[in-house]
Amino acid sequence: MQRYDTYKPSGVKWLGEIPSHWEVLPGLAIFKENKERNNNLAVNTVLSLSYGKIVVKKDIDEGLVPAEYNTYQIVHPGYIIIRCTDLQNDKVSLRTGLVKDDGIITGAYLGLVTNGKYNSSFMHYFLHAWDITKEIYRHGNGLRQSLSWLDLRRLPILIPPIAEQTAIANYLDTATAKIDAAIAQQQKMIDLLNERKQIIIDRAVTKGLNPNAKMKDSGVEWIGEVPEHWNLLPYRYLFYNLDKLRMPITADQRSRNNPQYDYYGASGVIDKIDYYNVDDKVLLIGEDGANLLMRNLPLIYKAEGKFWVNNHAHILKPIRDDYDYLAYVMEAADYTLFITGSAQPKLSQSNLNCVKLPIPPITEQKQIVDYLSKRTRKIDEAISESNKMISLLQERKQIIINEVVTGKIKVN
Question: What is the pLDDT of residue 352?
């Protein structure tokens, strides 16, 4: 793609040089803060910010639910939403979204209404570039490193002529849609591979490797029949639960020690303030009921040595030397009947202790581990390749957005 004919210094470090005919204006010249609140509960379409998109929330009782929705802000198509809190603790999430539907969204987010002279889609792509380049993290203030309208109103915004804004927005809509479709295809492949892997694991840990073994009814629906000589044991007979041995640390302590240890969390994502430090070879399972019900892989994390873990994961040390087998069978287990709570379903420690697992003799456990290690190796390699491709596509998408909205390449 071609560049513009002439450039000039923008005066803004992360923007660098910009096309000579573009302007830089403060945020207050382009936006106003959305202050429309759902005071009379007139609107009931709840929206949420998810992976950089504003989506209609299908289940309004899922996740953190407010007592009332009268504190939510009313938004309309073209509004821009920014999640401005906890900048110091989360440098991974996408924090901006463009509203496509009429509805309400939490008042904890900053809602921006674009002046009619400017293209709201282009403005969102610009703020999205500000987010994905991590420039956003230089602007937070206060104890929790948060942003407000007072910060955004002074933010330098890059302004091409309106015709170019529209052309850029249309180009990026098309280009990113193609990349998103390619990412979705790779994710579909990962889902199919994970499903195939799960079937192989489920069969091995419930039926064993001997097709001629005499079977018995386990009395547990997800297990079905098991080899007659296998045991069925609840968690409390298989693990020491180390949850109570966690030592709370401050966010500052965690930050200073961050480079030294691996992170493990309830869903594989660390997004809380309070973390704990345990030194042991253990298995972790999250208490997040929604994750367990959806069977998102992996459910189980193998943690060795010293590591950080958030307070929403159960820490389990096997009583016997069957660490690898237990990781497989824990992954296969159905936790549905042991999850309680509707708004925030959880797997409590006491309920986890009651979940039964099929346990063969130790020699068979080792045979099953060897078998599964070999059978799933190629599947894991294929999943890894798809994940690499997704990362490359996401990186390509970010580069395109950043270079186009900052004028490094020209859209015809």
Answer: 94
With a cut of 50, say whether residue 151 has pLDDT above it: yes
pLDDT at residue 134 above 80? yes
∠ CA 50-387-295, nearest 5°, is 60
Cα separation, 196 vs 36, in Å, equals 49
Are 276 and 246 within 8 A, CB to CB?
A: yes
- CA separation for the pair 247, 279 (Å, rounded): 11
Q: Give the rounded distance of the alpha carbon of 407 from its chain centre.
A: 31
Q: What is the pLDDT, as a whole number, of residue 254?
A: 58
For residue 353, report the phi and psi dihedrals to the nearest 5 degrees. Answer: -60, -20
Q: What is the pLDDT of residues 364-401, one digit of tens each?
A: 999 999 999 999 999 999 999 999 999 999 999 999 99
Beta pairing, strands 17-19 & 7-9: antiparallel
158, 405 contact by CB (below 8 A):
yes
Cis peptide bond N-terminal to 9, omega within 30? no
Q: Report the percentage of the chain scoring pLDDT > 70.
A: 85
Within 13 Å of residue 155, how many CA atoms lie on the same side as its CB? 28
| Encoded tokens for 281 | 């070879």
Taking the C-alpha atoms of residue 354 and residue 408, their distance in angstroms, rounded to an integer, is 60
User: Considering only the top CATH level, what class is 23-159?
Assistant: alpha beta
Give the start-to-end residue ranges of the domains of the chain: 23-159, 231-359
Nearest to 296 by CA among 275, 265, 322, 253: 265
Under 8 Å between Cβ of 128 and 403:
no
**Distance between CA 276 and CA 270 in Å, rounded?**
12
Contact 126, 14 (CB under 8 A): no
CATH 2.160.10.10 fits 231-359, yes or no: no
Closest C-alpha among 371, 344, 47, 343 to residue 200: 371
Retrieve residue 233's tokens.
Answer: 């044991």
Q: What's the CA gap between 360 and 370, in Å, rounded? A: 14
Model pTM score: 0.80
Report how far apart the first and last C-alpha atoms of the chain are (Å, whole number): 9
Least confident residue range of 26-35, 77-86, 248-257: 248-257
The two domains 23-159 and 231-359 share their CATH topology (first three levels equal) = yes
CB atoms within 10 A of CB 63: 11
- Residue 322 structure tokens: 């069957």
